Amino acid sequence: MSGLFGSLNAAASALQAQSLAVSITGKNLANANNAGYSREVVNYSAGATVVTPQGAQSLGLMTSVTQVRDTLLDRQVLHESSLSSYYTTQQSALEDAQAGLGQNISSASSTGATATTTTDTGIGAALDDFFNGFQAVASNPTDTGSRQALISSAGILADRMQQADASLAQAQADLGTQVSTSATSANTLLQTVAGLNSQIARIEAAAPGSAVDLRDQRQAALEQLAALMPVTVTDTGGGQVQVSAVDGSGSPVVLVNQGTVNGAVAISGAQITAGSPATVLALTGGSMQGAIDASTGPIQTLRTQLDQLAGQVVTSVNALYNPTGTTGDFFTASGTTAGTMSVDSSLTAAGLTPGAGGAAGDNTVALAIANLANTKFSTASGDLINGTIGGAFASNVTQFGQAVSTVNSNVTNQTNIETLVRGQRDSVSGVNLDEETANLLKYQRAYEASSRVLQTIDTMLNQVINNLGVGT
To answer: CB within 10 Å: which end of the chain, N or C, has fewer?
Structure first.
């Protein structure tokens, strides 16, 4: 009799196991398009064995549910997504700055050089019009129309310098806001990871590896965090992880230790601090560092170069237009930066001085200033720029264009790498519809077979209990 009851127990546990397998397969299929989901599998093992008069018998089939994860691939995804976010943030920032500059920048990939195309609204065109205006006045010093056109072109040049500087300043301000917002998001994610650590530890205290959904949520939070700042994740046992970054010496700065967040992520100027005590981090990826590097790197460099260019134009033109300092400046003397450059408010077409002698046909001043377009300056001689004014601007724009081209190339390469790594992880952790469909049929048939065994044993027990000895 114990043999039949033992078989009944085994069949019931098998029925329960196949039912669980069907349920998990359905869950996998439901999450086939969930990027944050890792495929789950049912693990089978024999139950405990007891000794009976009929010999050793198993107590049935034991099951557990685990998720299919590759820790190494998860770490690689964190690393590559952090780099991708770093480059894409820089790309977006530099493209915004390029638009504000008012210049079309294209890269000639065949030669590796960067060519600059000046648009109708660019500073380059304004510089050309400005010096051409002085050339027109030099050709006809008494023509009021030429004088008025010159003042107008000078005003346009100053306006475009101011607009470019304002646009670049706004781009930097927007990046600063983005970094601050990202720091807030990072702190929220750190709290989320710490909370999930505690939940997973409580659930898995009695069943290690069973909190599969919470582990998926934690991994998703870690990947969001890595997109903001690069982190290292270390398994500390008990289902919990430690999250850390690095400082300037390469030493780890612990951000999350099991269920505790060690200090908040904060922004101090162009530095990111975290940990307890607050430590300056040395980040090599993530959108926060990408935004900071774009702002303090190419964008600030371009602003500085525009200031130097504006300063050179203002001081050089004023030196030729008002050599004695008594006849009035052409540009406002104090406006020697791109953001402050302006035409002197007292300048009029009638009062314009095209020549030093004041005679009606004197064009010496206008001609000298027109020739500034071809004058070569040198910082070694105390000038603010190297080369001609137009050449210096073209060089500045080309340098910025090279930065744009480089980051575009980095985005393309890094996107390919991240796609490859994610594809490798998906091949391990992702849901394969064909495989899950085949498993569903297999578990269905196993369930049907277990049901048949259960039905057979039930019939046998009924025969023994209700019909044994009947009719004798």
So the answer is: C
